[in-house]
Write a structure and sequence with these properties.
2 copies of one chain form a homodimer. Chain A folds into 2 domains: about 60 residues, Winged helix-like DNA-binding domain superfamily/Winged helix DNA-binding domain (Arc Repressor Mutant, subunit A, Orthogonal Bundle); about 35 residues. Chain A is about 55% helix and about 10% strand. The first copy, chain A, has 6 helices and 3 strands; from the N terminus they run ααβααββαα. A 3-stranded antiparallel β-sheet of chain A has the order 1-3-2. The radius of gyration of chain A is 18 Å and the shape is globular. Chain B binds a DNA duplex (30 and 30 nucleotides) through helix 4.
DNA sequence: AGAATTTGTAAGACATCGCTAACGTATGTT
DNA sequence: AACATACGTTAGCGATGTCTTACAAATTCT
């Protein structure tokens, strides 16, 4: 067979692909502060608003954001649950990486403690 | 300015980009079992060995693998430290995601406990 | 109704990615 | 020396990604 093209990449909605682009990570960083419209979201970036819109489509497909339309404004909200997939994958390397990951465990414990203290 | 092309993506060696491709993740999964030569590494994949070699170059640039040449064989070893960058980034969303991440915290505690038990 | 606002979509330019085939290089074998 | 093995590199291709400009659709305002 001279050329059975496979191109086994990027199943639509893949979370790893979604977070691979720095702009999309920054979008998620911003959304962590609270829901925002596209215009608010696009403000600090140097690319055009349609470009942001396209990034948001990719984030939508990955399930990392949700949209809620109110009038003519579209509010985007973060949905971090699917980041779990990345988290779990990385945690498989914990055995090879005890020190760093123990640090992170402590870090998470600390965050949780703070949360409990506040609540 | 009519068209100052920026293309602000993929600084060489970016870890997020390195793990975005499923083949590269599978390579890391295999290397977690122990060091391997390129041929051993390429065996289960349906793509050619040079393609694997190119993926390995990207993993090398990201610092996620190291190479040790012994004779004509090149042994690749996993270097998971830089995964920490991803881990830390994701952990910033913990506050929005308490349940899942608590589960992961438990998971890590369990892994660590097993490790300690093994001695 | 008509104009302004907010957003998504389409088309096209351009760069980059991922792959194969072919070749080059270094090491080992006979 | 000649050949075999293990690997990297290059050239070239088709596919995909990212961006801009232009436009369409929905909502709000006057």
């Amino acid at each position: 067979m001279p050329s059975t093209r496979k191109t086994t990449n990027n199943a639509a909605g893949d979370v790893f692909t979604a977070v691979a682009h720095p702009v999309r990570r920054q979008i998620l960083d911003r959304l962590a502060l609270g829901e925002m419209t596209v215009s608010m979201l696009a403000e600090p970036f140097e690319i055009t608003r349609p470009a942001i819109s396209q990034h948001l489509s990719i984030l939508l497909e990955s399930g990392l954001v949700a949209i809620e339309k109110r009038g003519r404004e579209h509010y985007y909200q973060i949905r971090p649950d699917n980041l779990n997939e990345i988290y779990r994958w990385i945690s498989h390397f914990e055995r090879l990486w005890p020190e760093k990951l123990d640090d992170l465990g402590d870090y998470l414990d600390k965050l949780k403690a703070e949360e409990d203290a506040e609540g």
